[in-house]
Amino acid sequence: MSWPQGTPVAVIGGGLAGCEAAWQLAKRGVRVTLYEMRFTGKDELPPATTPAHQTGLLAELVCSNSLKSLETANAHGLLKAELALLDSLVVGTAKRCAVPAGKALAVDRGAFARAMTDRIAAQPAIAIEPSEVCDIPAGPTAIASGPLTSGALAAALSRLFGRDNLFFYDAIAPIVAADSLDLGPLFRGNRNSDDGDYLNAPLTKDQYRAFVAELAAARRHRPHGFEEGRWFEGCLPAEVMAERSKDSLRFGPMKPVGLFDPREGRRPYAVLQLRRENAAGTMYNLVGFQTQLARDEQRRVFGLVPGLERAEYLRYGSMHRNTYLNAPGLLQPTLQAAGRPDLLVAGQLAGVEGYVESAAMGLLAGINLARLLRGEPATVPPETTIIGQLARHVSGGGRGGYQPMNANFGLLPPLASPVRDKRDRNQAFAGRSLLDLEDWIGNCRN
């Protein structure tokens, strides 16, 4: 690939990922056209908007004002530290617009959106185009249109990547840390197979009935108005199944058919299965338990299942409006589209979950497009970093059906020397990550 010197890059979407991509390109001397259909530069609602946004500013936060933890012993905090090393616009601006929030980074929404808009608008290499993109441009492009991608652009993405590869709803089951499970009550085995890929938590009749009753009655997350409460019958929230009938789960995701508990010498009454989420076996997915329960309720209710009493949740279950690609096979770890290396996809559209995770993919897209324009190969941060592992997850991580991922230590490869204490272990992960990232940054500059 080669382009004339001074070729502008199209960045589609003025959210966190799009702004970060545009900023990283501009600071490397690349001219950028940033497309955002909502943009007016003002606080009032623009004529062209989404069901969630309320202003014509860039980088408007439509849900929480929290960007989560700042502590590097927390995966979200480590990701922020990685992005700070990479001179992230989003993280730097958030810190300048922070409001008191203990050990978390929370921002004044209005001040943050205004500051992001002002910084992008003041960058001479960036031109903001306030129009809807209905077709994917030719030439170097980054698409970061977010979970509320417009209908016209979604149709264009469907044409390019295939209709079956563009999802419009998230149905996410919780993921727990493998080393937080009590293996005592669990047994390995697949249904009707000799393989031992799954961990199985057997429940007696009384345990199952108590679990179903608590699940059906548990407190739930209240969806936003733009997240319609319509469920696909093949992918119902677990609590909805529990409401319908006390046996719905036992004939659904908790069916014991084909499973044999070697300690009891018989088939269990019901089983909650845990499927390995990554090759290293550090994360397990609660199979079939997509849910809208509040996070504290997920810990409480799933903690009734034998073996999960002290489970550490790396990702909570959720069901909400989203637009994202079934990225494995479509995107490389560099975020380049297969078959079209000058097209990169970033943010939640690529299949990450969360504000800072989206910004991280935008940052990587910006770095890689700048490298491509200089005739250099695209690159990926080390596998010991959160940002590097998020990019690898997008391109083919996970087992079973592809689902968006947020920052968690389960993504990282094990330490060379195991550390028993959780906080010390996380700090060791963080120390390794930041040292390796500094080396990678130095190599990229050379």
Structural description of this entry:
With 446 residues, this protein is α+β, with helices and mostly antiparallel strands. It has two domains: 9-170 and 321-445, 3-Layer(bba) Sandwich (FAD/NAD(P)-binding domain), CATH 3.50.50.60; 175-316, Elongation Factor Tu (Ef-tu), domain 3. Helix content is 31%, strand content 16%. It contains eleven helices and 17 strands. The protein has a six-stranded mixed beta sheet with strand order 6-2-1-7-17-16, with helices on one face. It has a six-stranded antiparallel beta sheet with strand order 10-11-12-13-9-14. A hairpin with a 2-residue loop joins strand 16 and strand 17 (340-345). Helix 1 (16-27) runs parallel beside helix 9 (355-373), helix 2 (75-85) packs parallel to helix 11 and helix 6 packs across helix 7 (238-244). The radius of gyration is 22 Å and the shape is globular. The model is unreliable at 224-234 (pLDDT under 50).
Comma- or semicolon-separated keywords:
alpha+beta; six-stranded antiparallel β-sheet; Elongation Factor Tu (Ef-tu), domain 3; single chain; 2 domains; FAD/NAD(P)-binding domain; six-stranded mixed β-sheet
